[in-house]
Amino acid sequence: MKQKLFLFYILLAAAVLRGNAQSFTLQGRVTDDKMNPVELATVSCLAQGKATMTSLKGEFSMQLHSADSVVIKFSMIGYRTKTRVLRRPKGKQTLQVVLYDESTTLNEVQVKGQRIQSGQTQELNKEDLTLAPTVSGNGVEELIQSQAGVSTHSELTSQYNVRGGSFDENSVYINGVEVYRPFLVRSGQQEGLSVINPDMVERIGFSTGGFEAKYGDKMSSALDILYKRPERFEAKVAASLLGASAYVGLANKKFSWINGIRYKTTKYLLGSLETNGEYNPNFLDYQTYLSYTPNKRWQIDFIGNVSDNHFNFQPKDRETSFGTLNDVKDFRVYFDGQEKDLFRTYFGTLSFKFNFSPLTSVTLLGSAFSTKEQEKYDIQGQYWLTQTETSENLGVGTYFEHARNYLKAHVESVKLMLQHKTRKHAFEGAFTYKREHIEENSTEYEMRDSAGYNIPHTGKDLYMIYSLRARNTLDANRMEAYLQDTWRFTSGPDSLPTLYTLNYGVRFSHWNFNGESIVSPRLAIGIIPSFNQNLTFRLATGLYYQAPFFKELRDTTTANGVTTARLNRKIRSQRSIHFIAGVDYRFSMLGRPFKFTAEAYYKALQNLIPYSVNNVKTIYYGDNKSSGHAVGVDMKLYGEFVPGADSWLSFSWMNTRMRLNGRSIPLPTDQRYSVNLFFTDYFPGTTRWKMSLRLAFADGLPFSAPHRELERNSFRAPAYKRADIGMSYRLLNNEDRHSGSIFRNIWLGVDCLNLLGVNNVNSYYWITDVTSQQYAVPNYLTGRLFNARVQLEF
Q: What is the CATH code of the structural domain delimited by 122-793?
């Protein structure tokens, strides 16, 4: 019996030892070629039917049976699958596995080409911003203003109108976040630097209509800006008589950081205006963009912007001559008083992007905007209006203008966005929640006295010709969502197919202030036919709503000569239905690439909130009172007229009308035609000297006397004509860094602004005598000026 028990224990121990010898523990870590952990990678042994996934640190552990050979597979979407074979593994096995990208890495190759536009968003070349003559210093907006379908009538402003829409109908996005601008600005003289820093821009996308569902609730255009992520150190310093700027970018494999600071003063520029005085404007802007990519899964971005703008002005006197050769009038004013304005804004956005794979990602994005604005002026003017030929006094009087306008606002938002791509589709959807708070406290009035009589003259009562009071607070929440898909497919033979790009989507928005919910379906298709791959046909349509924000809400009522502005809770969104047909033709001429683009459009406008434009300030009626249309044709020829230098010529024709109080009148931005030319050239035989020429010729806008009904817009201002030319000399060219200099480029330049010295009309000052006879005295824009500049690139 003892022998049998001893034999049993020996056999049992052998079985246990044999069982332990047949299993082992496999552990280790999976990384990419940069030693970043690969999360959620699959580690599998198909022969044994076992698998596990790596942790957030790329680590794994699993129990397997031993054999002569054990095949282990490591796989992850976006990486090449790797297989390891273990020979008679025992105990604890540790592996360090490196997965490489699926894409094949080639030697660095530089390819220069022209991207084919198949949708409604055109990509503009950011290189066209550099070295061009500039008045405002807002390079991106000046580039936009020269595009087909875009108009502006003042070199002092970055504002622009698109296809008959107001300035407020244009949306601007920076890295996927909609940005806001000051509300109280009423003159180009007060404008500071644009929210877009041109030194930090990587890509510019611009659409004049028919744009995608991802772009917000605006009726006219969408400007999409992407800030750069440099791969190495870079820097630039520039200075001119109109301001200065500095930019620096830092980067390594995981981290990039760019910073830009700009200073602008228009003291020299405003000195060419007809109103003499002490101009003391100064505008300061700082922006930063920080991007951190710890691994291929995560990307963390932060954008910050601080803008501090001051405009101080003490006018002294002004003399303006206007009229015809046979009827010349002279307007002379002596001033007393001053104006002090402040516009201080803060903007910040923080985003977290997680890549499930190279084709699928989710982004959580938060942003905040804050503005503090104050506009204060007390200006008295004593004027004489004289008929030059006879020295007859047509009007003698005094006017006094007063304003104490204060506004505070902040907008916070959070956005969750999902993107997914397949071989033929690019899906995108997002949900946004916004919180809006605005406080306004405004008081304005204007007194006019003509030859000892107060205007308006009733014979018994004294009223101001204009008086406004507004004390409003807005607290509201807004929810927005969109879903869209870009589907690329072909038809016909594989050797020569017809290429289609179909974008379709829908946008939803709800605002609790007026309880309105809106739905905006949008559709666009681009076709590259098989019979000519240099042609692209584009069709687009969609329902676009202009959700009211703040300025559109201010409804006014007048009692006893005082106008009071209150927020209208019954107001609804303005609506525009776009119908667009376009064609692009790409061709070569003189061995260089060119592109001709033509678009015809029709916009049906409904629920319009009428508005008038006083200088660059848009003043709304505060109620949905009209409907109308905008129809037109835009054409643009773009290419290298000179090798290595982009130029373009654009032409636009437009007709707009709206129905208001039973009358058909043009919209305040009805610019019937416009021609813009941007031309660059090098001196023969050298690339050191570069010339840039900018020409603008645009029809004048409708206007009427201020504080009058909009349907009395029976006059039209003269056409806007302007020519700016700049000459640049490349003092140092060290692009390849062969020399020991720390500079990459040094450019010296001189600009002649308003080369032809044209007196363009910005607005009108109206003189009213006691008999209600009115005289429109033109307010002219800047005269001819020279600007010197230097730019250092590191």
A: 2.40.170.20
